[in-house]
Amino acid sequence: MVGSFRAELLKLGKRPATWLLLGIALTLGALFAYVIPYLGATSGTTGATADRGLAATLPANIVGNTLGGYPVFLGALLVVLGVLFVGGEYGWGSWKTVLTQGPSRTTVLFGKFGVLAVAALGFVLAIFLMGTVASVLIALAEDASLTFPSAFDIVRGIGAGWLIATMWTMFGAVLGILLRGVALAVGLGLVWMLAVQNLISQLAAPLLPWVDSAQRGLPGPGAGALVAALGAPTGTPGVSALMGGGPATLVVAAYLVFFLALGAVVLRRRDIL
Predict the structure, then answer these.
(1) CA 2 to CA 4: how far, in whole Å?
(2) How many angstroms separate the CA atoms of 18 and 245, rounded?
(3) Which residue has the higher pLDDT, 42 or 83?
């Protein structure tokens, strides 16, 4: 397991797509969590999210501000990462090459899953660091307070972000395994993240009470409720206080375990890779 983990970690670090996705995540996080709200607050522009104000971009709100993108946009990038890292092995024929060397399918797969969990943590920490720098710069520019949340709140926020980010990367990995490739898995993953979830939450749920109840058991609304409980602005796409932080954590954790188990079972039972 350790050998597989080290090999997969080296492989992930050498792929340009990994760093490209991280760069896109940092850029989107900076733009939509800090730059655009700051420009809107200082220019006096009115709009749907104008009520967030300058205070939302200050260090005191760093936990919620950096978590707001995980239910949809940053989550979609992590789904793509999971698909590329696992589904890409089918196109290159890497599965057969690795497994003929001796490691079991489960060992190789959980080595990949472990690396994806580390990558998800790296994304979360990088985005939090970006948010820290951006919020401090804004506070200095506006001569505002540099007070940060408590250490407990910061660690709890990073832990919640890691849980959500890992769940989305495993979702992408399982799509890659089920569909044995990249293109269709990425397409379906993005359709679910960017279209289906929003249609359920914004169109179907307000009209049908049973859909409103059922959506609480879906991964996207669960992630959105979890980050909302930690202070993410509810006007952010995908962020909605449908339930408390405790139930939302259980929903996200349950999907993480489900994706891990599903990926392992499917890969082990297939006759042909």
Answers:
(1) 5
(2) 30
(3) 83
